[in-house]
Amino acid sequence: MDLDAVPQEGNRTHAGLRKAIYARDAQGRMVVAPSAGWEVEEIVTTQAVDAMAAEAEAARLRVQQGSASTLEYWMSARRMDVPLLAQSTGLWQWRVRRHLQPARFARLSSSLLDRYAQALGLSAEQLRHLP
């Protein structure tokens, strides 16, 4: 991309900030150029955020119906998936998947709840309940 072609349309998802993009200057060198973003980027980002919010709401409904633990809701609300939560807690993925079941989650030790709470940025008490 040439330096004069760096998008400057603006992007609400950047909250007024700029981001760095590599572009080619007049001498053919790659330089860092500030960009305000562009409309397509804003549309895609907004759609992705909406999809994640819809997944969190679906998880909330599963928790309310009793088919999922509150861990599933908080994991979705914090935009995490099983591999990321497993990595953040130091647990195996199969263990995290088991804890998404309400009966198994209800029997977790306080130390395991604390690990999940810390990874999700919550207290153990908040982790046990929907907001």
Structure write-up:
By secondary structure, the chain is mainly α. It has 7 helices and 2 strands; from the N terminus they run ββααααααα. It has helices at residues 39-65, 70-77, 82-89, 93-99, 102-106, 110-120, 124-127; strands at residues 19-24, 30-35. The protein has a two-stranded antiparallel ribbon with strand order 1-2. β1 and β2 form a beta hairpin. The longest helix has 27 residues, at 39-65. The protein is elongated, with a radius of gyration of 21 Å. The mean pLDDT is 93.
Keywords:
single chain, 131 residues, mainly alpha, two-stranded antiparallel ribbon, 7 helices, 2 strands, 53% helix
Q: Total helix count?
A: 7
Succession of helices and strands: EEHHHHHHH
* Helix/sheet category: mainly alpha
Helix content: 40-55%
**Terminal residue distance:** 46 Å
Main sheet characteristics = 2 strands, antiparallel
Low-pLDDT stretches are: none
* Approximate shape: elongated
Count of DSSP strands: 2
Give me the side-by-side strand order of the main sheet.
1-2
CA gyration radius, whole angstroms: 21 Å
Strand composition percent: 5-15%
Mean of all residue-level pLDDT scores: 93
Give a summary of the structure in a few sentences.
This protein is mostly helical and 131 residues long. Helix content is 53%, strand content 9%. The N and C termini lie far apart (46 Å).
